[in-house]
Q: What sequence folds into this?
């Protein structure tokens, strides 16, 4: 009788938990990816389990472009930069002939980016500096409120992944602290991270330009300079995490080789660890790309995910839906 | 009857609150400093009040040296650096004749620091780089566990200010997020900030050396370089806060002119703001110093605190006790 009662309680407890988890991750199809996430979290919060993780150590880091929101045809922040270059052009007559600006003004993005990352950094620096931090963030806010994606016509903040929003909520409900760790600009992401992802600015880590603190007419302002302060990508991601968080997270989520070192560091730690890569396999609902893509290229991660015991999410098979609506 | 009942409830509510607050800040003598802090917090958490602050905006920043723990006869981290220089000396025979190392090895700290900040930075870089971050933090942990203060004989982590520990607790009990914003080394402070102040590593902002992420025998490590990455002092403090937190705090606590710009920025914001400087006035229980001190010099803050409406804590008069025991 006592045992029966115990078993019943256990049964109810387990089914309730599974039910709640399943509901929380409603846009994830049942399968090994979802199962692995749930098992990790249920183990982490169970003080009786060897895999228990104290709350202060429950830190989960998320790449942004291609992991929390889309990144095709090009990083959204680059599209923002091009729009800014266009609207700043009247004050820069020299851009009509100077590359990569001239190509952007002619609408030739491919031509502008022909020389690779260096051209992109030039365009980002030109469009992201010379103003105050507040001025910059107002520009970003205005752009996000009005610009739409070139192929879907959605607002950019609606091109976030519903399954990842549910995952963020699920982790926070289990007292994980969620951070963004992105190659994107820290002040760019902070404009929308709290409203869109529920991630406050102090939990956003990204690339940055240098900024100076000065007084203008007695008012303190931060002036953004056309100088890179930090590139939070590849081996820079663990460094950015070390600077901002100061300890090794237990979960890491990414989608490209830019996230490799972050996952490598996180999953090399002692105790329970979870690394996950989103594989873009869904040419109908989103995009299908990996090794050859000029954004979010995934080579080494694809080769080594299995041996490293990282979860490889198959967007087409693992996600019931991609975007919120 | 109804009004009587209402007044009684109000009376009980008010006296309970004041009692709880007074108890929370037990080492603060009743007076204008304590009263201003309590009024600010009680207003901030009252949704009916114009001074209400939403939880996400309740961010309080604290300097460390001279604000949370003592800084005499010299910043404790500098004393750590000197001890490290001494123990590293056998591997550096050139230090026997090279300044400022030679003076340190002869026990002549004053001589070593004769040339000011530059010598101190040299000594800190020499003793804080060349190892992994974990190796460095183990060194700090060992030192903190064994070293004692030259005049009080206490462990350094026992030279924290009891009234400030109570203040940290009081603010957190009212859902303020507490951060350290110090000129001291970020990786140095993170060794003890959680255990001593209840402040987790991700809420510690400080100066830093550059670090590289690399693999050593397949294990990810961070290698500390003899290069300054950031100096989180004076106008660097607002910049450090902007990088790490990404928004303006509502409360700032310091004790020296190194905190001036931090208080300036914080208290220039709209809505309710609180800036506070600890004035070291207690030559018996701690130290008495301000304008002429070579550590924690307070000049401009002393001149402008009143006009800027910053609280100037008189350690001797405002604090019932200084150290925990």
A:
């Amino acid at each position: 009788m006592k045992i029966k009662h115990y078993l019943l309680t256990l049964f109810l407890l387990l089914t309730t938990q599974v039910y709640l988890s399943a509901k929380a991750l409603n846009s994830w199809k049942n399968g090994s990816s979802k199962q692995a996430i749930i098992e990790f979290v249920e183990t982490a919060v169970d003080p009786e389990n060897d895999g228990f993780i104290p709350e202060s150590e429950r830190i989960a880091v998320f790449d942004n472009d291609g992991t929390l929101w889309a990144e095709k045809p090009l990083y959204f922040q680059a599209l923002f930069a091009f729009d800014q270059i266009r609207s700043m052009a009247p004050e820069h007559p020299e851009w009509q002939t100077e590359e990569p600006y001239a190509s952007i003004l002619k609408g030739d993005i491919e031509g502008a980016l022909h020389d690779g990352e260096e051209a992109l950094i030039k365009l980002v620096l030109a469009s992201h500096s010379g103003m105050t931090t507040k001025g910059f963030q107002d520009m970003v806010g205005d752009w996000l409120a009005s610009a739409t994606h070139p192929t879907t016509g959605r607002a950019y903040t609606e091109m976030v992944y519903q399954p990842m929003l549910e995952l963020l909520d699920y982790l926070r409900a289990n007292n994980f602290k969620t951070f963004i760790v992105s190659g994107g600009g820290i002040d760019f992401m902070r404009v929308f991270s709290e409203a869109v992802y529920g991630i406050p600015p102090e939990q956003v880590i990204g690339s940055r330009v240098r900024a100076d603190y000065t007084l203008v007419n007695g008012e303190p302002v931060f002036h953004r300079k056309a100088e890179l302060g930090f590139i939070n990508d590849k081996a820079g991601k663990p460094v950015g995490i070390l600077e901002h968080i100061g300890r090794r997270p237990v979960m890491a989520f990414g989608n490209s080789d830019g996230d490799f070192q972050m996952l490598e560091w996180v999953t090399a730690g002692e105790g329970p660890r979870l690394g996950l890569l989103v594989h873009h396999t869904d040419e109908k609902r989103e995009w299908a790309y990996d090794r050859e893509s000029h954004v979010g290229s995934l080579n080494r991660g694809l080769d080594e995910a299995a041996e490293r015991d990282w979860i490889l999410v198959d967007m087409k098979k693992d996600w019931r839906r991609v975007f919120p609506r």
